[in-house]
Specification:
By secondary structure, this protein is α+β, with helices and mostly antiparallel strands. The chain contains 10 helices and 12 strands. It has 3 domains: 1-202, Beta-Lactamase, CATH 3.30.450.20; 204-303, Helix Hairpins, CATH 1.10.287; 310-461, 2-Layer Sandwich (Heat Shock Protein 90). Strands 2-1-5-4-3 form a 5-stranded antiparallel beta sheet, with helices on both faces. It has a 5-stranded mixed beta sheet with strand order 7-9-10-12-11. It has a two-stranded antiparallel sheet with strand order 6-8. The longest helix is centred in the middle third of the chain and has 51 residues, at 221-271. The two termini are 62 Å apart. The structure holds adenosine-5'-diphosphate. Adenosine-5'-diphosphate binds at residues 363, 367-368, 371, 396, 398-401, 409, 414-417, 428-432, 455.
Length: 465
């Protein structure tokens, strides 16, 4: 397998590459285009000074204004008309232009439509043997019937030394930025990578249900949330683990009891021929049936966990279905003095898997029978109108369920009373299976109860006709 680089090294690499790219780009743009930018800037400032002068001509005290304009923009100004010839601002290089040159500039400016830029104007400085490159922007205006030639000029400083200075400065800047990048990478590593590493390390204990969130130190909300999600997952794993152990214990207990009965009764009939009567043989048959229900429910539970349960849905009469369930329990209850009632509303047609819906109802009824320690037990199987639905319910006058347990009883393996009681009928794996079956049908479901008074388990269906 290819060796993976650590996130810290990758991050540092990305940051350094990014910084070098940015600094390189700035370096390239500055050193290559600096001349060009500089020229453009100079020319635009010459033009704007010439424009300001042409706007100001005719105002009072222009001399002082022009002087300031020249000084502030580091340019030299000269105005020439038939009558007057003025130069403004200190060391004015334009001062030394002779009249022939000025006439030439004036003629070319008029020819170009009133404005012209004379670049690289070679001008021999009076006190300097070396010729200097000068930009002159000339503008010809007409004021009071008089032609005025405005000339604004600026010396062009060679930029080679500036660029050399910039280059050496860049090296310094690159150095400083690289150090800052390192510091940044360390900070990121401390605030981001460290918690990731801690969470990753702790997650290795998750499968054992030993994730310890308190060892993860982080000030960030997102990591704290991730940490608490993993803590919850850990809690769920522990819960499921405990419940599985409990279920195994219960299931083996439930298996052993009917098996003991079957073996005991079988041996008794074998050894004592006079005990070979219908009643004893029925005990064996009943216990064997109970075992078969238990095995079926265990198979269903495992199918549910794998999401492979198939529903055979059909349109059926709701009342017909409930009557058949009622008749199945009628004799059993009569024999035990349990008051079982059927209270049906107007019949409707529902689309459901009859076998599965009966399974849910058996579970509700079996629980009503199991969790009732009263002398006179009563159970109602019924339907009622509820919020546009038809509510199918099983109501008992049994032990009831505490408010705090009402939501949990639907959870897999949840038992209110941890002391397992063997069920009269059915396997008792129950409500979690019922919940999955009702969910698969899309029927809303729920339970209401008052401890010591009643429990009501229900689901809601709709007429499909
Ligand atoms: P089991 O019956 O094996 O415990 P169930 O999933 O059917 O499994 O029920 C879960 C728990 O809900 C029961 O242990 C019981 O505490 C509670 N319960 C269910 N139905 C009733 C009821 N009708 N009256 C009181 N408690 C009930």
């Amino acid at each position: 397998m290819k060796k993976k680089t650590s996130l810290r090294v990758q991050l540092l690499g990305i940051l350094v590459a990014f910084v070098l790219a940015i600094v390189g780009l700035i370096y390239f743009v500055q050193t290559t285009f600096l001349d060009d930018f500089y020229m453009r800037y100079k020319v635009s400032s010459l033009k704007s000074v010439a424009q300001s002068i042409s706007d100001l001509i005719g105002e009072d005290d222009t001399e002082e204004l022009f002087d300031h304009l020249g000084m502030n923009n580091e340019v030299c100004i000269r105005l020439v008309s038939n009558e007057e010839d003025f130069c403004y601002s200190g060391a004015c290089t334009l001062r030394n232009l002779d009249h022939n040159t000025i006439n030439l500039i004036a003629a070319e400016t008029v020819e170009s439509g009133g404005e012209k830029l004379f670049d690289n104007f070679r001008y021999q400085h009076r006190f300097n043997e070396h010729p200097e490159d000068v930009y002159i922007f000339a503008k010809m205006i007409n004021y009071d019937d008089e032609d005025i030639l405005i000339m604004v000029s600026s010396g062009i400083t060679p930029l080679n030394t500036t660029i050399a200075t910039l280059k050496s400065q860049y090296l310094l800047i690159v150095g400083i930025i690289l150090v800052m990048t390192l510091v940044l990478a360390l900070l990121i590593s401390r605030f981001i990578l460290k918690p990731i590493k801690q969470i990753n390390e702790e997650s290795k204990n998750l499968s054992k249900g030993a994730y310890d969130g308190s060892s993860v130190r982080t000030g960030s909300k997102e990591f704290a949330e991730l940490n608490s999600t993993l803590e919850n997952a850990n809690e769920d794993i522990l819960k499921a683990d405990r419940a599985k152990k409990e279920l195994l214990g219960n299931v083996s207990h439930d298996l052993r009891t009917p098996l003991t009965m079957i073996v005991g009764y079988g041996e008794m009939i074998r050894d004592l021929p006079e005990e070979n009567n219908e009643e004893n043989i029925n005990v064996i048959i009943e216990e064997a049936k109970r075992l078969s229900v238990l095995v079926d429910d265990l198979v269903d539970i495992s199918k549910m966990q794998d999401n492979v349960i198939d529903l055979n849905r059909e349109d059926v009469s709701l009342n017909g279905l409930l009557e058949s369930v009622y008749h199945q329990y009628e004799r059993y209850c009569e024999g035990r003095d349990i008051d079982l009632k059927l209270k049906l509303n107007k019949d409707i047609t529902i689309n459901a898997d009859v076998k599965r819906i009966k399974q849910v109802l058996y579970n509700f009824i079996n629980n009503s029978l199991n969790y009732n320690s009263k002398e006179s037990q009563s159970i109602v199987i019924g339907t009622e109108k509820y919020d546009g639905f038809t509510r199918v319910y099983v109501l008992d006058n049994g032990d009831g369920i505490e408010e705090k347990d009402l939501d949990n009883i639907w959870d897999r393996y949840y038992k209110v009373d941890k002391e397992h009681k063997r069920h009269q009928i059915g396997s008792g794996i129950g409500l979690s299976l019922s919940r999955e079956l009702l969910k698969a049908h899309g029927f809303p479901y729920g339970a209401e109860s008052s401890p010591g008074e009643f429990s009501k388990f229900y689901f809601d269906v709709q007429d499909v006709k």
